[in-house]
Model the fold of this input.
Amino acid sequence: MTGAVLPPLGRPICFVFGKGGTGKSTVAAALGLAASRAGRRALVVELADRAMVPHAFGREPDSDGPTELAPRLYATSIEPEVAAEEHLVERLGVGRLVTRLTGGRGFREFARAAPGVPELVTLERIARLAGVDPSDETADPAWDNVIVDCPATGHALAMLAAPEQVAAAGGEGPLAELAARLAGVIDDPAIAGVVLVALPRELAVGEAGDAADELARRGISPAGVVLNRVAADRFLPAERDPLERVATDGAAPAVAAAASMAIEQIVARAAEVALRAELTRRTGLPALELPDLAGPPDAEGLGLLAERLAATAGAHLPPRRA
Amino acid sequence: MVVCLGAGGVGKTSLSAALALDMALAGQRVAVVTIDPARRLAGALGLDGLGDEPRRVALDGLAGNDAGELWALQLDPAATFDRLVVRHAGSDEQRERILGNRIYRHLSRSVAGSQDFMAVERLFELLGDDRFERIVLDTPPAQNAVDFLDAPARIVRTMQGKALRMLSGTGDALGPAGRLFDLGGQAVIAVVERVTGSGLLSEIREFVGAFEGMREGFAERAGEIEELLGSDRTGFVVIADASPAALADARALIDRLEEREIPAAAAVMNRIPEAAGPGPAPGELRDALTGAGAADPADLAARVLDVWNQRERAAGAAAARVRELRERLAPIPVVTIAPLAPEPVELTGIAELARGLDGAPERGRG
Done:
């Protein structure tokens, strides 16, 4: 391993949380790229069969295994329900015969109905990829960083709560054991961390704050907070006055309109700065800002974001003790 | 009844509220149902602690004398599911057995799709409520917005599923393949027992047992819900923004609606920047800024023009996407909404959004 590592990437597993539309996949991909550029072997995991991350790099997903996106950067996907089904079939002593007798769908339904099974199995796979499953004998994990592009906040919280819930329900057997084992992994701040992604919009900031509260109730503090799609600072505060004068003082309509547009930007930017402060207040961490890429993310844009993530790492140190 | 569908992050919740407010201001008694763990509608409507029961929203300062009423509520899928069980249970004992069962609690509280099913179930409950003439439904956040349409069938399938019944050891589920399945079933039970531990299986067995006799009532309800979604009483409004991903989701939704022969009532494209037209002459802008006392007028003018041109490009790209969706949907109306700054989180912001909608729902069915 070489180079500086961003604090959230200092942990083998990084769960990327956020409200729908905040750019979780983009941030997950950029985090992966930043890690790989720092010399680490990074894997971005999508929890659905959609391959948004490979597509952002202009790649089609590889059906045989993780898709290579850049040096040391790979992507893969896990579908929780399919994973649950595979897990159950794998552990079946009578395997294929039973599957044939009952039909594949039978297991899918069972996998769906069994409380917490898809979530547990997904977490187990993630833990194994990161080489942090204590029951896994593999000495050398394939990945230094496993970055998980999580579903929308509510579902993501439910996934992280699954081990504890299943373990709390009692009972014996391999599932209960798995739950107990994973609870120790997910809750260990040396192993796993949550990165909260928000947009500079009030509702998204509110949801990130709610997620931080919910995590805090479980004794987890976020490992990082990202404010995504932040507009560039184009004007100085002192430039507002002359712009205001041009906007109101009977200049030609197009000139006045252009000045108004610039003022709108200044106002919007000020609102973003206030929202960043609010995000920091709610989550207890300074937010790492990423610029608005103006368009769908591609390899170049993600490179820019990764650079930004690496450059702002210094601003992201844990708070000093009083 | 209006169901708002769309990808996450397009402003679906705010627009659902705006649609409802628009109708209320036009004199109707409207309830808006939102389903959202982050309780965003509560914020958007300036309400705290929005609950499962409809609450009247004060329209102070917005409404004239001829205004109707706006009610809002937050879907509580678990509470709705529990009511459904209470309604269908044959006895107190059956009801308690189901409500206390771990499998039931899991199915009703966390399985993907139960939220969707309950959203429509809640809609059904509200339809029977004389307080409301119209209901607007915001839909749950989903990886895939089209899943919403299949949710009732999916959850009923799970609850009635062969797998659960087989695992419970009830022979009647095994169907014509009877004995062969029975053998397989026994093997499955033995293995699942080994994998999961015994607690889970006995609970599944109890759940399935307790559900006997309610199955028909449930299936009937799901059938009614599907019928309602496909009827003239329901209008679907597809919501997107100018991002390619949201637009792709909107197109997929429209395809799926068409497959079911349910045309969308309308589409709304949110946060569409308006074209500002040809920009100012650079010299003129610079001179005006010089006159206004700017420190570096040439540089400032260049940055102002940059902002203008960027907006023009964004507006051009968005307009192309709006045209694309209009062509796809014609003659169904596509309404565009300009970006609001700040984002609407107060009732006044919602009202501004509502003005932008310009009667869109009235043009739809329903």
